[in-house]
Amino acid sequence: MYGDFATVYDGFMADVPYGDWCAYLHGLIQTRRPGARRLLDLCCGTGSVSLGLAALGYDVMGGDLSQDMLQRAQEKARDRGQRVPFYRMDMTDFSLINGVDCITAMCDGINYLTHHARDDFFRCAYDALLPQGLLLFDFSTQYRLLTALGDNTFADENDDSAYILVTHREKGGCSMELTLFFKQGEYYRRGYEEHFLFVHDPTDLADALYDAGFSQVEAFSFLTVEDIKPQDERIMMIARR
Q1: Is 95 in a helix, a strand, or coil?
Q2: pTM check: above 0.85
Q3: Which of 31, 56, 77, 117 is the S-S candidate for 113 at Cβ 3.0 to 4.6 Å?
Q4: pLDDT grade, residue 184 (50/70/90)?
């Protein structure tokens, strides 16, 4: 996953307000762990959140399983003159020599994990955090995956590429078939990827976080500090070590 798509990912995500996302994370962090600076951004993709948080003064390192996404993140860091290291990391099996104040995992990273893998991630995150450290992540809700996306077809194009995304409601989540077209001279090259996003319930997530050792868990409607609602498409969760 995120092989060919990495080269065009930023173009098709241009309408995502990453600046607002980073400001939101910054506010959540500084009201719960004032002075936090050292941060690990997992599922960092092409580094938009990592670089945004670094611009806000955090000492950030990014991690992702896709080498193609990491290559793009490194290119963006060089282009912007930012010294943010990026590493190939499996969010379900990682460790750090030195602990961090915060770990973030944005843009549905949790949805790519089974319940068992999710529990592995929480345990790794707990071990990697300093005392009173924070784990912050968002996820797409059941409403978004099974209702807003559901059985549907989406498409978009720009000057150099295009995609067709076909989604299917499945038991436990939403499958996605992504067909990509890359312009090469007078022709287009075709790429294909399959993704599956698992449904996670916020109550189950909270229970799993407590089981992993976290002492306090909060959940909000995304980009707010309001209680979650049945038709939220995205939820933000924060857990304190």
Answers
A1: coil
A2: yes
A3: 117
A4: confident
How high is the pLDDT of residue 214? 98
Using CA atoms, how far apart are residues 28 and 18, in angstroms rounded to an integer? 15
Q: Which CA distances in Å does 241 have to 27, 79, 133, 162, 228?
A: 18, 35, 5, 43, 22
Backbone angles phi, psi at 120, to 5 degrees: -65, -40
Cβ atoms of 135 and 118 within 8 Å: the answer is no
Backbone φ and ψ for 102, nearest 5 degrees, come out as -145, 150
* Residue 160's pLDDT band (cuts 50, 70, 90): confident
d(CA 81, CA 12): 24
The reported pLDDT for the residue numbered 167 is: 96
How far lies 180's CA from each of 4, 58, 66, 172, in Å?
Answer: 8, 35, 17, 26
